[in-house]
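Appendix B.2, paired examples.
Example (i):
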Amino acid sequence: MHETPYEDSFFDIGACVGSLEYFEKEFVQQAVAEFSRIMKPNGKFVLDIPNIGSPEFEISKLIEEYLGRQDQFDLSSEAFETILDAYFVIDKKEIVGPMIQYFLIAK
């Protein structure tokens, strides 16, 4: 996810759903930079992150821990959006259960 075999500006659309919550800040930063690298300018990208602190997230975190898939994500939505701002325009943001979905446009 943070190193892909694709050329620069390869995709018009892309998505990363249900994955970033398993990684810490450094890896997430690398992944977002890679998403940007492989997206064409004005390409559309959708991703989600945990809505840390929400009651729904706390329940899903317990379930994930029970299943042996502990969340590693350690960024507030504000800190994550700062990372995004370097590469994408946030077109829309929605809270869906324990996750925050971002609809992005590549710069």
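Example (ii):
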Amino acid sequence: MTNIAILGSTGSIGTQTLDIIAEYPDLFRATVLTARYNWELLAQQARKFNPLKVVISDNDAYLKLKEALSDTPVEVLSGGDAIADVAAIPEVEMVVTAMVGYSGLLPTISAIRAGKTIALANKETLVVAGELITGMLKDSPSRIIPVDSEHSAIFQCLVGEKRSQAKRILLTASGGPFRKLTVEQLENVTVADALRHPNWSMGAKVTIDSASMMNKGFEMIEARWLFDCPSSNIKILVHPQSIVHSMVEFVDGSIKAQLGVPDMHLPIRYALGYPNRLPSDSGSLSLEQMATLTFEEPDYRKFPLLSFAFDAIDKGGNMPCILNAANERGVAAFLNGQIRFTDMPKLVNHVMQNTPFIPSPSLEELVDTNSEALSIADNWLSSHSPSLI
């Protein structure tokens, strides 16, 4: 029995992780569940899975959650510090980091310091602090098993292989809902348009990042740290069918690929069961039903955020942290109708150009960088509106 903490249990990855825990009740227990503000769903999950602790980061929802679970033995906590604390409790062996954005960084660090196995679904952790995290892992029994479908695919392709014989990573991207639109057409896309992903069902933040291809930029940065691979050896390929989840090319010219239906249950199940593969009753991939599998170069002119991601990792230091903070603000502003889709790169570029650069930041300096970048983004947003841009 593996005791699991799910950080972000009410989101897309969190709920699917609970599906798998319910599928294998003799193997896994949901020991800790956390959420940002969805206390109603968190309460339902707590009643079904009977964890030791639940945490709601929104203090306004704490009393409602506590009242909803008052007749249960579940301990109810609140606040971001509590999430970092429960990631390190002795009863937990594996931590699924399914929180969205920068908020996943400190709980992941807490889990590493406590030596937990981490099923990583929060890509921003390695985007913001990849060098710091990889350094910490060298001095900890903790290990990371990637949950993102692309990184799970790369991980699976490398099992049994010498890392030194991997030549480059071929990171696939669906291209999102706007792959066929022109630059001019992107000026008028709506939030509803951007949330209509052709293949995957994800939360709003990740879906918008997929539409802008910022998500693929983040995944490139994450892959750089997960697999000790320089960005120059990571090639992004647009693969609209989302069947080949990523590939690895080796020094002899061989390419290994991991294929599967576009369903996040598969990489989550692999991460939870690793090194074993857990049997599943879900449908198999029928290649004979696939008319074609196509691959193409991404359009960096149409999706400039992808270029910014390469710029950020190549410069290093705190620049990826700046990139992430600016993008978080940009996505939130777009979702709120404050700016247009094509304004997000303008905001990100402004913040990257105006936030002080630190070549080798400490954790404290990364925390300060995140705050400063958010403040610069807020100042830009306060002086811009759709009518002014």
